[in-house]
From TrEMBL:
<protein>
    <submittedName>
        <fullName>DNA polymerase-3 subunit epsilon</fullName>
        <ecNumber>2.7.7.7</ecNumber>
    </submittedName>
</protein>
<dbReference type="InterPro" id="IPR013520">
    <property type="entry name" value="Ribonucl_H"/>
</dbReference>
<dbReference type="GO" id="GO:0008408">
    <property type="term" value="F:3'-5' exonuclease activity"/>
</dbReference>
<dbReference type="InterPro" id="IPR036397">
    <property type="entry name" value="RNaseH_sf"/>
</dbReference>
<dbReference type="GO" id="GO:0045004">
    <property type="term" value="P:DNA replication proofreading"/>
</dbReference>
<dbReference type="GO" id="GO:0005829">
    <property type="term" value="C:cytosol"/>
</dbReference>
<dbReference type="GO" id="GO:0003887">
    <property type="term" value="F:DNA-directed DNA polymerase activity"/>
</dbReference>
<keyword id="KW-0548">Nucleotidyltransferase</keyword>
<feature type="domain" description="Exonuclease">
    <location>
        <begin position="22"/>
        <end position="189"/>
    </location>
</feature>
<dbReference type="InterPro" id="IPR012337">
    <property type="entry name" value="RNaseH-like_sf"/>
</dbReference>
<dbReference type="GO" id="GO:0003676">
    <property type="term" value="F:nucleic acid binding"/>
</dbReference>
<keyword id="KW-0808">Transferase</keyword>
<dbReference type="Pfam" id="PF00929">
    <property type="entry name" value="RNase_T"/>
</dbReference>
Length: 272
């Protein structure tokens, strides 16, 4: 674990948010981008406390397989050096202590780092610790919400200098943390994790931005068969009940939203 005092101070000084609980900013490097088949080779974490103190974790991980040449070229991490690193199960307990009680932040976190981390933990019989209601800030999504570019380009635009050590996990964590603070300042975002998460939802009911409520309270679909038409759930119920039944059966993470709205309309899911 190669964190320096200077790096820790940089993280602590760069974040300007009012935290109600710890914020865990993290980044993973891996053998590839497939959550099911690829494996973590490095973890970088910064845990920032509400009082401003920061603690960092920087660890190479033995993936128990070779690292593709393109990944070696991108990250500078070689198969040979990882043969001396511990496997994930040997550091999992200590690593997970950084996530305890914390909200999460990272760059492209929702699409890549978080699903990969959860998959890797599942493979060794572990899982993220509470809280269940943690907020997840994806700096990439935030930048797309405002302006879309890679982490290196975003960092350079905000700071005027190149991001040193890009694609090295803790360097990316430091860059992500500084970009987060600059975004809050430049775009007038709320100064709390909860406030940012609420604003980023933009009225959507789920993180994948598939359902939202319109001004009249109707639930509208922004995906699938009727996504481009923004059909309401009421319209689908009346005109395409088979499709609604399919959604209730197959889309687990939206079922609760569907059933809540059906109850508002005087129906039960079993009646559809």
């Amino acid at each position: 674990m190669s964190t320096t005092t200077k790096q820790t101070e940089t993280i602590a000084d760069s974040l300007d948010l009012r935290l109600s609980r710890p914020l865990c900013v993290f980044d993973l490097e891996a053998t590839g981008t497939d959550v099911d088949t690829d494996r973590i080779i490095q973890v970088g974490i910064a845990r920032i406390e509400p009082g401003g103190q920061a603690d960092t974790f920087d660890q190479k991980i033995d993936p128990k397989r070779s690292v593709p040449s393109e990944v070696e070229a991108l990250t500078g991490i070689t198969t040979q050096e990882l043969t001396f690193a511990p496997p994930l199960e040997d550091v999992a307990d200590y690593m997970l202590s950084y996530f305890e009680g914390a909200d999460l932040a990272g760059y492209n976190l929702k699409s890549y780092d978080l699903p990969l981390l959860e998959a890797e933990l599942g493979r060794i019989g572990a899982e993220l610790p509470p809280p269940e209601d943690r907020e997840v800030l994806d700096i990439y999504e935030m930048e797309k919400y405002c302006r879309s570019l890679s982490l290196e380009a975003v960092y350079e635009r905000y700071t005027g200098v190149e991001l040193e050590g890009a694609h090295e996990a803790l360097a990316d964590v430091i860059g992500t943390t500084e970009v987060l603070s600059r975004q809050v300042e430049e775009f007038g975002l709320p100064g709390t994790v909860e406030g940012i998460a609420e604003e980023m939802s933009d009225g959507y009911l789920d993180e994948k931005r598939r359902l939202y409520r319109d001004e009249d309270g109707a639930m509208r679909l922004d995906f699938g068969k009727f996504g481009d038409q923004n059909r309401s759930l009421e319209w689908v119920l009346k005109n395409e009940p088979d499709y609604l039944r399919w959604m209730l059966e197959e889309i687990d993470d939206l079922r609760g939203h569907f059933t809540d709205r059906l109850e508002e309309l005087g129906y039960k899911a079993a009646d559809v």
